[in-house]
Specification:
Blueprint (H helix, E strand, L loop, with lengths): L1 H15 L4 H12 L18 H5 L1 H7 L9 E4 L11 E4 L1 H11 L1 E4 L2 E4 H8 L3 H9 L4 H4 L15 H12 L12 E4 L4 E4 H14 L2
Antiparallel strand pairs: 1-2, 3-4, 5-6
Helix pairs in contact: 5-6
Length: about 210
């Protein structure tokens, strides 16, 4: 029994030092860990790891061909299929992203669109476009080239959702965030109401005499 325990521990330590171990862990995390930032594009849409690979790291190593370089990524031939021996290969990051984007479809307001087309139209990254779709943006916002603020979570109640939606289009004093009335800061990640800003400046000047 002592020998068996020592042997098991040695195998675990050996696995953690293997160059593909983190690839294996990340593969499973994308499919089964709901806290993973990429879960919604993998496990959240039904992508899973076959039982053989999920349970056995060594089986994963044996089934995959040698990794050409450390820059090559684990890639699924069928972007809607599972991580399994007959559906995986090694690809460069560029090839992987182009193929995934080219074969992925999303639905906006009941209409199905090719993700690649939305990425090209918007000029934004694949993950940005997918996040906009997930957050419930309409078509015009999904393809917008502008930096956009997060839309409300669909799970929120009606009143909370309405309040958050209004906060996306109006400042706390009710002024609309039109292009003319918006001051963008920090590379577009933050905005201020121009009307309120000028009002504060006027008030400060009056206070200073």
């Amino acid at each position: 029994m002592v020998y068996s325990h020592h042997s098991t521990r040695s195998n675990v330590l050996k696995n953690t030092k293997h160059p593909l171990y983190n690839v294996w862990l990340n593969m499973k995390s994308r499919c089964f860990n709901e806290n993973n930032p990429q879960y919604h594009t993998y496990g959240g849409r039904g992508i899973y790891v076959c039982d053989e690979w999920k349970k056995d790291f060594q089986r994963f190593v044996e089934d995959m061909p040698p990794r050409p370089t450390r820059d090559h990524q684990l890639d699924r031939t069928d972007n809607d299929g599972p991580y399994s021996p007959d559906n995986c290969q090694w690809s460069t990051r560029k090839v992987n992203m182009e193929r995934r984007t080219n074969t992925t479809y999303v639905e906006i307001d009941g209409t199905r669109y090719k993700l690649l087309d939305l990425v090209k139209i918007s000029g934004r990254g694949r993950d940005t476009v997918l996040e906009r779709v997930k957050r419930g943006y309409g078509y015009s916002d999904v393809i917008s080239s502008d930096n956009l603020w997060r839309m409300p979570d669909p799970s929120l109640g009606g009143q909370a959702t309405a309040k958050i939606k209004r906060a996306l289009t109006h400042c706390k004093h009710g002024h609309e965030f039109t292009p003319e009335n918006t001051i963008l800061e920090n590379n577009g990640r933050h905005r201020r109401c121009r009307t309120c800003h000028y009002a504060r400046m006027k008030k400060q000047r009056a206070a200073n005499g």
